[in-house]
Design a protein that fits this description.
Largest sheet: 6 strands, mixed
CATH superfamily of the largest domain: Probable tRNA modification gtpase trme, domain 1
Number of domains: 2
CATH architecture of the largest domain: 2-Layer Sandwich
Order of helices and strands: EEHEEEHEEHEEEHEHHEEEEEE
Structural class: alpha+beta
Radius of gyration: 19 Å
Strand order of the largest sheet: 8-9-10-7-1-11
Helix content: 10-25%
Strand content: 25-35%
Number of helices: 6
Shape: globular
Distance between the termini: 35 Å
Number of strands: 17
């Protein structure tokens, strides 16, 4: 059994607490806050009024409020956005990033724990700290949200060994789930184009939330024609903004470059060919289709 653990120093923890916190979040996020209990956490996003991607995060019940586990580069903007919508709601929004840290370990290790259940988002306490099976995809493993002062003692008791965060990024990218640089996606695609339905991040049965109208319209009218997909570089490099072209037809655009690249692709276009080698100005690359998305391409 793999005993590696990744200290996700690129994550931040916000805390939303107060009498109105449940209703407050329910009116904002793409998922249903009623799913979040002491035994269940959820993945959700905060969209623009037009339904465009702004932020994504994992929501975990904590005491009388909720932890927001988000990318550190987005945390300040999420904090500001939540405060912007706060108005007269009786809530408190705290940034606890200096106190709490997120550690991630393997799915197999999680299953070996006596209180674990093989259900995405399932949550239980280990020495008062929540352990969550990733609500997006179980192959991303489990997350431990813990006070920094307790971290290393708990990792020792769990018999976990520190591993490089880049190995976690690489695993996430191969799975087809964006590991970092989420700010590069802001306002460039609809939330539903981020595959949030398949990643358990959208609830189409809940009431209104910001961006709900366009999200529901795309879903109900079967208008979803683009998806965010991982890029596999074969040779050279690619750059943000590079066009994806086949048969002289543009079928997509690179949104995230670097080590863990992603492109927004017209996946229904006849010029999109699985396993095809595409050319950019400085490189050759493939567009991968994650296993958990295959049914959407049939």
């Amino acid at each position: 059994m793999k005993k590696n653990v990744f200290i996700l120093e690129d994550r931040s923890i916000l805390y939303v607490n107060g009498k109105d916190c449940k209703d407050f979040l329910q009116n904002l996020i793409s998922n249903d806050i009623n799913k979040v209990t002491d035994q269940t956490s959820c993945f959700a996003s905060l969209l623009s009024p037009q339904g465009k991607f702004l932020f994504e995060f994992i929501i975990v019940k904590h005491k009388s409020g909720y932890f927001i586990d988000c990318e550190k580069s987005q945390s300040e903007d999420i904090f500001k956005q939540l405060n912007l919508y706060k108005i007269r709601s009786k809530i408190e929004i705290l940034n606890l990033s200096n106190e709490f840290v997120v550690a991630c370990f393997e799915y197999e290790k999680y299953l070996s724990m006596k209180d674990a259940k093989d259900i995405n988002g399932y949550t239980f306490k280990y020495r008062e700290d929540p352990i969550i099976l990733d609500p997006r995809n179980e192959k991303l493993g489990a997350r431990l949200i813990i006070n920094l002062e307790k971290l290393y003692l708990s990792l020792k008791k769990l018999d976990l060994k520190n591993d490089k965060i880049e190995n976690y990024y690489s695993k996430s990218h191969k799975l087809g789930i964006v590991p970092k640089d989420l700010n590069k996606l802001q306002n460039k695609l609809f939330g539903i184009e981020c595959n949030y339905e398949e990643l358990n991040g959208i609830d189409f049965k809940k009431g209104c939330y910001i961006g709900q109208e366009n999200t529901a319209r795309i879903k109900l009218k079967n208008k979803l024609s683009k998806r965010l997909l991982p890029i596999e570089i074969v040779d050279g490099s690619i750059s943000e903004g590079d066009k994806v072209i086949n048969n002289n037809v543009e079928i997509g655009k690179v949104l995230i470059s670097g080590k863990y690249p992603f492109a927004l692709i017209k996946f229904l276009d006849k010029n999109f060919v699985k396993d095809h080698i595409y050319k950019s100005k400085n490189g050759l690359f493939k567009i991968s289709i994650p296993n958990w998305l295959h049914s959407s391409f049939n």
